[in-house]
Amino acid sequence: xxxxxxxxxxxxxxxxxSRAELPLALAMRPSGKAGIRYSYSSATTGxxxxxxxxxxxxxxxxxxxxxxxxxVKRFQQTKERVLDATGVHLxxxxxxxxxPGQRLGxxxxxxxxxxxxxxxxxxxxxxxxVLAYARMVRHNTLMxxxxxxxxxxxxxxxxxxxxxxxxxxxxxxxxxxxLRMSATAMTFPDETFDFVYSHSVFEHIDDPEAAxxxxxxxxxxxxVAYISVHLYSSHSGSHDPRILCQGSPRPPFWPHLxxxxxxxxxxxxxLNRLRLSEWRALFDTIMPGAxxxxxxxxxxxxxxxRMLRQQGELSSFSDEELLTVDFVGIWxxxxxxxxxxxPVSGTGRTSLKATGSDKSPPxxxxxxxxxxxx
Length: 374
Ligand SMILES: C[S@@+](CC[C@H](N)C(=O)[O-])C[C@H]1O[C@@H](n2cnc3c(N)ncnc32)[C@H](O)[C@@H]1O
Fold this sequence. Notes:
- This protein has about 375 residues and is of the alpha/beta class.
- It has one domain (about 45-360): Vaccinia Virus protein VP39 (Rossmann fold, 3-Layer(aba) Sandwich), CATH 3.40.50.150.
- About 35% of the residues lie in helices and about 15% in strands.
- It has twelve helices and nine strands.
- Strand 4, helix 8 and strand 5 form a beta-alpha-beta unit.
- Helix 2 runs parallel beside helix 6 (about 140-155) and helix 5 (about 130-140) runs antiparallel to helix 6.
- The longest helix is centred in the N-terminal third of the chain and has 23 residues, at about 65-85.
- The site of S-adenosylmethionine has 18 residues, from strand 2.
- S-adenosylmethionine binds near residues 120, 121, 122 and 200.
């Protein structure tokens, strides 16, 4: 066995996640008729991990400004990337944010100049509301509800909203609309949206192929999808809170991919564990011609990776897989595409036939069928 670093040796070998030992190849669980079946954070985790996450909230309370800066940077970068890859300006569009999460960061940014709705399998409540909390306990699990409650009680969400408005140079942010709906089985009609956005969500979906097909279905011809995936093979891809939060003691590098360390990994959520080549293949099949962008972490990780390779570790992963944190697929649905339902499976298929124009004005906010998905 290779010589282990001090960080590796200190790594806590507490309760284990049995899935950490599964082969990494496509560990998807086919879901049949996909719907809302779980809270994304309810899959695996220990009580101590949750306490750890709650403690991390106190850090979050102090870093709302930097979080807002980061979200606005991501928002600007998304607009630039979409323009570069497709020529489409993200203004006055009818848009969908898949899995905006409780903070609603990018959804609020896009809402400034677009007509945006979000969908999430968790109940999302932008402010304290007793009824919404009752639904949260039912759907999001008690621990996650407590976390949301703690965040709102500590004023973290309100401070984040204020910091976001300051960062965007506006005095208020539009009301956010989020429906409880799964990306794998959307209730929107075909060709509803000009833009579909998702960040750090598809790695949590048990049937990402169904979700990607749904995105292709609900996009208008000429509409754009921007799907950013936090790669499982990245250093933080295990979603163990100790790594996501960069806590102390400093965790070892890529522990979830190293057989000696993987048993100690405790993800705080369900992960489908798709590898980079599998994501590429999915995009190529469902969204042919998609442009790919990789957000990499070369600077801080190149040297540790070199040392691990010298020790013979991580040999079944390419540098690209290990150093890419977020893998982004950007796709403009051909102006000539029409969506048809597959007669066999009943799922959406996109075929190429002439129809429609590339531009139409965004529909009004009242067009949303808010009741249907609740
Ligand atoms: C890691 S959070 C990402 C939040 C936000 N997009 C961001 O980047 O900060 C993942 C979110 O995806 C949601 N989610 C998981 N599976 C989903 C699905 N099948 N359909 C819609 N949302 C889902 C979760 O409930 C959670 O709010």
